[in-house]
From TrEMBL:
It comes from hydrothermal vent metagenome. This is aminodeoxychorismate lyase. InterPro entries: Aminodeoxychorismate_lyase_IV, Aminotrans_IV, Aminotransferase-like, BCAT-like_C, BCAT-like_N, Class-IV_PLP-Dep_Aminotrnsfr. Belongs to the class-IV pyridoxal-phosphate-dependent aminotransferase family. Keywords: Folate biosynthesis, Lyase, Pyridoxal phosphate. Its EC number is 4.1.3.38.
Length: 289
């Protein structure tokens, strides 16, 4: 497929060296999924972006502007199923960490084809790099992701489990993690590090509807090993069951499957999808190449 990147609404690939995203990773991002021209769980993604923007004191980009850019980018790509990454940078400034209050933010939209589904056994290992505790940055999807980058440098499995500085389980590098034991759902507390993923939020809502007991607390690796089922979540995978953590095998998947089916139904509900209308002349132009 044609690579599509919009910067401030214009198709281009180069960002100024003075942009604070380039210099400091001073920005936020969201990774969304488009299915049949529906932007899934957009309201949840945008709400998290807004929470991070307010926390970091980045000036606002109107929601309608984001949707306009996404529609344009999808039209250029000619796709109805896609991964959409949006990035909000604080903008450009002179050298130094300080910035002016009226700095103009930069918006970026990147369109990618949906990856092929993961097949076969899904295995987790333990990351060699983990999280530092910082309650001011926890649950903000900021662009400083060196912890995850370091964690994946020696990855020899499908994913790996990241721990905090106290040795507690926080997440995998690209998603959240859950365990199921005797029908009870377990997931780590994320008050000092990690990101509350959009699909994690949905799973917790669904669990309440299904009347599953939920335990959000500090978890150790042993707590995970003692579970009957393990699964991970993110916006692209949705819910994905785990077969192994290192040599520990997990054969049960009944609760995971129940939650997976319920999440798919939730994603189809009108209130959970933003209907997109890619500009037809863009799409037609791209398809004719």
């Amino acid at each position: 497929m044609k690579k599509v990147v919009l910067i401030n609404g214009k198709e281009q690939f180069k960002l100024s060296v003075f942009n604070r995203l380039t210099q400091f990773g001073d920005g936020l991002f969201e990774t969304c999924v488009v299915k049949d021209s529906n932007l899934l769980f957009w309201a949840t993604h945008f709400a998290r972006l807004e929470r991070g923007r307010v926390q970091l004191k980045i000036n606002k980009i109107n929601e309608k502007q984001w949707i306009k850019d996404i529609n344009k980018a999808l039209g250029l790509a000619g796709l109805k199923q896609a991964v959409v990454k949006i990035i909000l940078s604080r903008g450009e400034s002179e050298r130094g960490y300080g910035f002016k209050n009226n700095i103009k933010p930069t918006r970026i939209v990147i369109i990618s084809a949906m990856p092929k589904p993961t097949v076969g056994s899904y295995t987790l290992s333990i990351c060699k790099s983990g999280y530092a505790n910082n309650s001011l940055l926890s649950n903000i999807k900021h662009c400083n992701r060196l912890e995850q980058i370091l964690a994946r440098t020696e990855l020899n499995s499908d994913e790996c489990i990241m721990l905090n500085e106290n040795g507690h389980v926080i997440s995998v590098t690209q998603g959240n993690i859950f365990g199921v034991k005797s029908g009870e759902l377990f997931t780590p507390k994320l008050d000092k590090s990690g990101i509350e993923g959009t699909r994690r939020m949905q799973v917790l809502k669904i669990a309440k509807v299904l009347e599953l007991k939920v335990n959000i607390n500090k978890l150790t690796l042993q707590d995970l090993y003692d579970c009957d089922e393990i699964f991970v979540t993110n916006s692209v995978l949705g819910i994905h069951s785990v077969d192994h953590i290192d040599k520990k095998h997990f054969s049960q998947k009944s609760v995971t499957k129940q939650l997976e089916n319920a999440l798919k139904k939730e994603s189809l509900k009108e209130e959970n999808a933003q209907i997109l209308k890619p500009k037809k002349h863009f799409m037609k132009k791209n398809l004719s190449v």
